[in-house]
Queue: 3 jobs
Job 1
Amino acid sequence: MAKKLLSILALTIVVAVASVGCGGGGGSPCPSTLTILSITEGDVFVMKAGTNTWVEAEVEMRLKVGDALKTGDDSGAEITFFDGSTMELEAGTQIEILSLNVVCETGVTTITLLQTLGTTISRVTKLLDPASSYKVETPSGAAAVRGSVMVVTVAQDGTTWITNLEGEIWAIAQGVELPVPQGQQCIITPGQPPKLIMMVEAGDFHTVGLKSDGTVVAVGMNDDGQCNVDDWMDIKHVAAGYSHTVGAKSDGTVVAVGWNGYGQCDVSDWTGIIQVAASYYHTVGLESDGTVIAVGFNYWWQCNVTDWTNITQVAAGYHHTVSLKADGTVVAMGDNFYGQCDVSDWTGIIQVAAGNYHTVGVKSDGTVVAVGLNESGQCNVNDWTDIIQVAAGYYHTVGVKSDGSVVAVGANTLGQCDVGDWTGIIQVATGEAHTVGLKADGTAVAVGDNAYEQCDVGGWDLN
């Protein structure tokens, strides 16, 4: 932990805006800064200020400045701060309390925490005084956010993802302050300014790019109009299926183009959507309250997801649907012939991907797990380390490492795994037999099947 502290550049998660004060007139006493551990589940440990020993934490334990808290696998905790704000710690998370303060004369409150690993969800009471702040710092290269409900995930290398679920949030790093619209996500890589998530997505035979200004580009097969996205605006997330493309807008509505034979494009009445996923013949949407909706082909019950809750990410395979929960566990529904839905024992996951008949998950420590069909070696990821994101194609799996390099396993019949010389990559996507990589500068690279020009992304600039 000491080494982590040496590399801190301040990420500050500042959530502005409830009612904290010193009471009315008549000399009311200054409010207490009493902060307690209100919930513990499983293995939760605390290191009290001035000590170097982790001890078992207890519910209602008082927490003070300098105290550190960590959760184990299949574990979680909640801190309740003196102003009523709360922070949930999901499995595999570590934080330290840096400041708890209230100025009696003005009612200005300051809460500052250091998050070095894992995922937290902060729900912050409105702050009456604009000088008040709720801050979360992350390791070197992280950013600062202001808002009311947000999810922060920190990888071992300090890469930070910030999702705005509700309120006004800004990400600040390297002297750049970036507003993060509600429902959108920001990434901060060590030593870099924050960026709204540009992204690439790959359908079976087409490739889609989301630009930082909310417009979309596409290349490849367009027999069913799946690339007709030139007029899309205000898009915050995209997904590509076999012959359809889906986009979630900043206002929570969804648009779709392409083949609609099974109703996979019937998303015009969706609202409150912050993320979408698409596969062969079905489409999945993540709602801002953590629930999930799906339309399209449902023979394998891959669309039976309406009872899922506390979801933070969705992925769609050929005939199965996978979702990541806020506590780092994973749920799956649909075709399980090859065991691609056998994810109930996964913990500490920060991202999931679904291929044709396999499912892949990235753990908070940068290792990777996979289940399902492995006839081409697409699940041989047990020795991968320092991974920050994965994508799963028909029969291949690709991973982005924290240093921007890329690894791949599985079928390579058309060169879709020839990514060993890629550098500066922040995200990858996979189609049936092609792989696309997004670079930090907004350009893209691609390898593999190019029969429909789905790899012709060399001229893209998504910044």
Job 2
Amino acid sequence: MSPLSNLAVRDVETLVHPYINLASFRETGPLVIERAQGVYVYDSNGKAYIEGMAGLWCTALGYGNDELVETAAEQMRKLSFAHLFTGKSHDPAIELAEKLKEIAPVPISKVFFCNSGSEANDTQIKLVWYLNNARGKPQKKKIISRVKAYHGVTVAAASLTGLPGNHRDFDLPLPGFLHTSCPHHYRFAQDGESEEEFASRLADELEALIVKEGPETVVAFIAEPVMGAGGVIVPPKSYFQKIMAVCARHDLFVISDEVICGFGRLGTMFGCEKLGFRPQAISVAKALSSAYLPIAAVMIPELMYEALLVESKKLGAFGHGFTYGGHPVSAAVAVKAIELYQRDRIIEKAARRAPLFQARRSASIRWSAKRAASGSLAAWNWSPTRRASVRSMRSTASARPLSASPRTKA
């Protein structure tokens, strides 16, 4: 193994990196990215890479976009920082909140700003608890997520996350966080079980969990439209329709975690539009600013805002917020990013190009499609007992996996 460069040694001796084996990392060192432009990033040796994941599903407008850079610079010169505490405000936050309400797929009353998807989902947890205290239902506090879900890594958001690696030896999940079945038909369907039957079974399992815990104790259900970090899992057809019916029967507040799927990832502005369900609240981050600056938002309905008013009349100040929430520079860049998505019809272009991506991809790996799927990001699933399948990140809920021909070597 080649000795580490000076830059790599400095990294190893100063940084703690997320999602890496820290012990072996001391030997291998980092890949140091020095610059980026368009879809390419360049390491410290000048080698170019296509950034196929858009960072962490976030740099939706590519690297080095001059309009975003100039927007940030202009705002920094005008108002480099301002907070939203104690009734203070500024134009970029107001304009961004207005824009998010305008493009929301469901009625939204107000917007709360924070800095990351983890903070957004952490805030969703606090708000649904706050809501039920205002409603006089203090026992209705449990929240249901799903196995393999990813909703963040703060203590509460990581409790929503359904991945063992985010729980082990962190003493998580906390009590009151429940996980229902993962909607991965390829992995978890029973022999001969259709997608429709699988979706019905998962809805029944969710309902059984609610009944077991007591509907009077369960407040909310949270879901990514397409599960990201858990494996790029597209739910089976009719899944969300069946799940929403269960949630409605038991008075569960439904939260759509759009941190990955929002702003065009599925070929629609929001993932819930593609998957055909209507949540009460929405979390957004990542592509909100094309990741040029950290910013996230919690989009809440009038019901939630009315509860906040009730609690303020009782308690006084709304005791939640972040120093950098709604930062003027981040907000200005987010406003510009949304303008670019709309002006340049980025989302429509992505939707149109997705079938081409699928066709070329399936041809390049010599796999035959049982049924065409729309999408431009995908994951492979390998099993010694099943043929390989591929699922599209932007597939419709009814899309079937691409299956390897039995005569084709993987």
Job 3
Amino acid sequence: MQMVILMTGCSKDAQIKNLQEKKKANKYFYRLKTKIMADIEKVLEFIREGAEGVLDLKWGILSGADLIGANLMEANLIGADLRDANLTGTNLKGAILTGADLTGADLTGAILTGAILKGAILKGAILSRAYLKGAKLIGADLIGANLSGANLSRANLRGAVLTGAILKGAILKRAVLTGAILKGAILKGALLTKANLSRVSLIGANLMGANLIGANLSEANLTRANLSRVSLIGAILTRANLELVNLTGSDLTGVDLRETKGLIQI
């Protein structure tokens, strides 16, 4: 008797068995997903009720969640999915958000003092007036993020990507931005006193009216950057690229420009 072989290379009985197993698996995963979502809803209810205690939400799926004013102090949010979540005024002091995805999230006025956001994704996130003093944002993706008026004093943004980010009026006093990318970023009126901006890329960035007193800009690329009316008193610009930089009305008292590169337009 000739055996009929299906396109899959399996016998008819084997295929039926596979289909049955697949259905069982689908039902299992559906129940698992339902349980996870139910658990997340319980967690959200727990948070909204203002219950105390450190939460473990590692790898949690919280995309689009309403967490306005929630207390997530020291919460474990490693790898959590917080895309488009509303975290306005949320307390995330000391929270661990390593590798978390906060794309498009609203963190207006959120408290992130000492929070760990290493490698976190914050593309297009709103962090206006957020408090990030001492936060660790090493290697974080902040492309197009809005950090207007945010406090990033002593924050570590080493290697972070802030292309096109808005940091108008932001406080970055003594912040570490070594090797960070701020191409086309807006830093009008930003406070960068004694900030470490060595090897940073500020190509085409707008720093008009910013305060860079005592800042370290050694080996920084400032090509086509707008530094008009900027205070650079005592700043370090060793081997910095100043090609086509606009320094109109800037205060360069105590700045040694002998080792800088490129043309200077004053």
